[in-house]
Amino acid sequence: MKKIITLALFSFIALTSCSDGDPGPQGPPGEDGLIGSVVDVTGDFSAANNYELSLNFNDVGLEVYESDVVLVYLKTGEDGTAGGQPVEVFRQLPQTYYINGQALQYNFDYTFFDVLIFLDGTADFGSLDSSYTDDQVLRVVVVPAEFAETSGVDISNMEAVMKALDVQENDIEKASLKK
């Protein structure tokens, strides 16, 4: 019993005599909250550009990391107004349309340097109505991979993504890829 009391007493003294010491220097500041970038791209798909639009992220001042996810949405129309402004309708790419039995698909691929948006499918692109090729508005959204994987936001719903990122229409960068 005497050994147990002695052992308990030494343990108590050892545990209570430890101190935290002086705090070390403060580390570098971290990033504030979730970061996401949004760019609206306007351009024409034509034979001259091989029915492709390419956006180099450096050209619009975006820093994209290898782990980031790039989402692209096609403006498909407008649905009324809100606050005097048109309500734009966007759909996530890829987006497929069937025209006279032929398939037209708007698709994209990306790296951390750029995004390439292109027409694909069995349709004769040269004979498409200009509503499918001219003055196309595409919204490019860059988000951290963690956001895309764990946020629970439906990334096919551009409105939900914009709300989660707290991006307002006036925060969106504009880029024209017309030649």
Automatic annotation (TrEMBL):
Which species is this record about?
Gillisia lutea
**Highest taxon, organism lineage:** Bacteria
Protein name per UniProt: Collagen-like protein
